[in-house]
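Example 4.3 (complexes with small molecules)
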Amino acid sequence: MKESLKKEVRERAKNCCEYCLVQAKYSGESFSIEHIIPLIKGGLSVLFNLAFSCQRCNNHKYTATTAVDPATGSLVTLYNPRTDIWAEHFEWREYFTEIIGISPIGRATVNRLQLNRDGLVNLRRVLVDAGLHPPF
Ligand SMILES: [Zn+2]
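Answer. The structure with zinc ion bound is encoded below.
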């Protein structure tokens, strides 16, 4: 993948993971350019199929494009940062330290990608206190 394409993806995401919204400049994790539809499922390395993702979210998503909504047991598509609007599927709770799914897609994505991992919640708490979170 060309460096210019990676840079465009990172800048479009405002240097934040497009799933858990952790800011790369404050995260201890590495970040990657994630294929929303994985290469092995025919996804292409084009802007519309790429997302900026922290390594943990990327690892939890792996090659999944669907997951179970824990509230209903239904299989639904995972949140797609290119076609879905974050605020229609997620809300901040607990003073901006936890992400809650407010739709089937949101709930399935929180569960599958584990968007409230201990390290993330701790980091959000520190950043909220410092006035640096949420990022948008
Ligand atoms: Zn993330």
